[in-house]
Structures are given as structure tokens and as C-alpha cells.
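2-oxoglutarate (2OG) and Fe(II)-dependent oxygenase superfamily protein
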Amino acid sequence: MGEVDSAFIQAIEHRPKLAVTEADGIPLIDLSPLNSSDSNAIARLATEIGDACKNWGFFQVINHGVPLDCREKIESASRTFFTQSLEEKSNVRRGELSPMGYYDGEHTKNVRDWKEVFDFVVQIPTLIPASHEPDDKELKMLHNQWPVCKRFNEFFKDKTSFLRLNYYPCCPVPHLALGVGRHKDAGALTVLAQDDVGGLEVKRKTDGEWIRVKPTPNAYIVNVGDIIQVWSNDKYESVEHRVMVNSEKERFSIPFFFNPAHYTMVEPLKELLDDHQNRAKYEAFNWGKFVAARNLSNFKKLDLMDHVLFAEGFRCTMPMLGGSHAITYRFQSCCTGIAEAVETYSAAIKDVSVGLQEVPPLKSIQDKANAFSENLRSDQTTATGKVQDGLQYLSYVVVSTSMPAA
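Predicted C-alpha cells:
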């Protein structure tokens, strides 16, 4: 990133403290009861998740079933990509017309983040509105900046979920800058794999203190996003968090942002509302229009509201939980899908990284991608669908625990 300039410097009141409280209070949830036939164990697990969402908005999960070697493969692929030269990484640089790919100029609350990212969508193509204007019905397609592997064509139908690779270089002024400034996640859920360096901090709801999330080996961090806060009508809160930087060690992390289809209208669930104390606290807003406005704000200075609100009557229905066997199947399916999909993404990214060093790069990348696609096993074609299915069910568990007992 070169010499530090004022664009990276946080305001005095938002600068990180080098001495912070470790997050022993962040719930650590064991998912092994999912393999049990004990319905009471499943119910206790659902309650534990609900309490974590209510009190913290964050929790870590262990015994999740995702093979460690799959995680290690994508972490290795991420390191391989980011260690390339800026010229090589810029071959897949994102822009206003194509917001997927490599980028090193993100801002959070108008202060530049000390990081580099690589984003890719999991549905090819992903549809979003062309603009944030309510009357503009035009859609545009987002594509990854490398050839499409046909295997992914049927995955994540209509969803706008995406995976990000984060790289936080060593920073000479960790007391002045942040890897990511304070923010809340806009989507439904985020699942994060962080390395052993750590740096994620969560703003504790009880006192506003910034709490460091201590890395737990082979754990995944899950946090509630703005959509679930709206769905639950504030019973669950999307909590502010930020990322510290390190003067001695670089840091890597991999978040998966679980987001709905572009046409989804987000509003409080009718099951949680009445005409007395539980009135809706939010107007309905169109998710796709919000995404379009947010993408635009990455490249233009805009004074946007926290949410772009558009009233277009939408009723979000909540399916009933299907018992312990249904929950077990969904989560095991999710874990299997993560294992298979991560391995695929890892290989694909490595192909791109190697291909960028060859001449002509586009042809060599395409040849590699086509060969890679043809060699995939047909019985893995639902891998990413399993991830989506599992995360969707997790969101149902989270939101359903906010509902009053029947």
C-alpha cells in the first residue's frame, strides 16, 4: 500500500486502543448436538444461538463438520493471490461497472481501510438493480472477472451472496489506522474464518466497550446482519465491529456474506407485530436497491442513509422448524457443501493466480477454467447449494427464536 497518508487516519475518537479486552464473553457454541437424535439437545442448541444473537449479535462455532484441510487450501490460495505484484492483481481489479474482483481502495465511513480484498459472487450471473432510484426497473448482471465454470450455473439461484478474501498488510501506524473501520453488516448473516493473528473487535452492547475476538483454532465466527435486525424488529441487533491492524504480522480472513435475492423486500416479520407495544420499527426496503446504492458509494462520495427505504408491500413468511432430524440434515448438508465448495473455490483461485503470470493471460486462464470445470465430479454439483440451504436454515433458527412461544 506504500506510504501512509491522511486518508487512512482515523478521527481521534475512533482510533484503536492497543490494549483491549479479550472477548471471553463472545459465546462459543458447540454444534456437535446436531449429530444427536436427542430433540432436547437440539432445542437447547437453538436457544443458545438465540441468546447469543440477542446479547452479542456474534458467536463462534466449533465442531461444525467443515474439514480443516479445505479451510487450509483456501487460506493458502488467498496468500498466493495477495503475494503477487500489484500489476498482476490489477488484471482482475474491480470497478464501478464490475464490482467483483480485486480492490485496495475501500473506505468505511469516509476513512480508507488498511486492507486489500478479492470479491466473487457465487451465482453466475448475479442480478442487482442498475441504480438505487426507486423508479428505475433496469437490472444489471454481475460477473466474476474470469471465465465461468459451468458447474456453478445452477447454484445460489437469485441470491446475492458473495465470498471475500481479506488481506491486511503490516501497518506502521496501528494506533492510527484500522483494517476496517467500525461498521455493521448489511445482509442476513456473515460467516467468518479468521487466522491466528486475529484483529476482529466487537462493540459490546452492555457498555459500548470494544472487545477483541480471540482466535479459536478451526472455529467460524457468525454474526447477525441488518436484515435479521429488521426481520426481528430489533430483538436481535446487528452489532458494530471493526478490524485492528498489526505492525509486525499481516492478517488474512475469509468472510461469506449470506444475502437474499435482489427483489427481496425486507421488513419486520408480521408474526412479531401487533397494534400495541410491538409496532413495526422499520419501513420495508428493497434489498437490491440498497446493494446498488452501496456499490455506487464505493466509487463516488455519497451521503447515504443507513438503509435505502422503499415501501413496496412484501410479506416475509417464516417456515416452521422441522424437528431435530431436519435441523441435523440441513446443517450437515451445509457443512458438506462448505467443504466441497471451498475446495473448488481454492482450486479456481489458484488457477487464476497462476494464469495471470502467463501470456496471453486471458486465453490461459480460460483454458484452465474450462479444463477445471470439465474434470469436476458430477455428484458435487449441489455443494454450494448445500451451503446456501444450511445458512438459510440457520437464519430461520435465529429469527424463529425471537418469536413468542405458541
